[in-house]
Amino acid sequence: MRAAVMYGAGDVRVETVADPKPRESTDAVVRVVSSCVCGSDLHLYRSMPAVPEGLPMGHEFIGVVEDTGWDVTGLKSGDLVVAPFSYADNTCALCREGLHTSCPEGGIFSGAQAEAVLVPHAEGTLVRLPVEEDSALLPSLLTLADVYTTGHHAAVTAGVRPGKTTTVVGDGAVGLLAVLSARRLGAERIILMGRHTDRTDLGRRFGATDVVAERGPEGIERVRELTGGEGTHTVLEAVGHLDAYETAVGVVRAGGVVSRVGVPQYEQAPIGFSTVFGGNITLTGGPTPVRSYIEELLPDVLEGRVEPGLVFDRSVDLERTPEGYRAMHAREALKVLVRP
Q1: Of these four, 11, 115, 134, 187, which has the most CB atoms within 10 Å of its CB?
Q2: Residues 6 or more apart in contact with residue 197 via CB below 8 angstroms
Q3: Are 100 and 5 in contact (CB under 8 A)?
């Protein structure tokens, strides 16, 4: 089959690799109908050291089940399914608590920008979709694999609720869908921090009430001005770099919550008296347990109450996947849909 493989920074190639086959009795092989390039893929695209063997790319996909191991009974050939970016058995104690990304039997997909994917723990991972593979809803349904559920995770862990204020740091796909999620959960005011007009316009469509284009200390000051000097009850950090964290801490209200869901994240960050401790600030967030959210979010997508697929502003076929990476790297595209 054909698949996208990264050999180093800026070096993505589409080449022929071995077809996936079930190895365990709980595996499934899924023919990919739609996948995409993620903002987290760009971190590797910009910094990955050269490697001779290459790294299969992609962790978001919708597809059709083609083959299953003998212990897979809840899925059959021909089922259209969406996969979380992480696979899990969905039966262990952590999965039952909604922490699928911490499943001892789990892991992160790599290789979804391809014609087919091997899915471990297929019944615990895949969710059947009640539409046809040519449905116009597929772009929005694909966001359930990562970016929409991640925006939702940020809002949920931060405690966004009616009557409260929220700042979203970052105008990438996750940030924009964090705006949508905050609006869905009833936030009274949503301040989007971003400086790309085409993206912040979409953010306004998703529910942002204010846009702050300034960055750093100027951006913090502007949010404080908009909130009477207090900051917002919750802050959703959707970038994953230290400067975004510093902004988040700078705009959160005393007693508020900062939820970090951006990738790649950072090991060193101020949490002392003058930043977090003194203000009784709560830090939360983390890798999204997508599987625990899909059933909750799916009905709104199916019934058209939300349209998270609007974050896709370019589509390429699989052979042109490297072009999709280049477009996102150059900020010529927000998020690229890949159709094998």
Answers
A1: 187
A2: none
A3: no
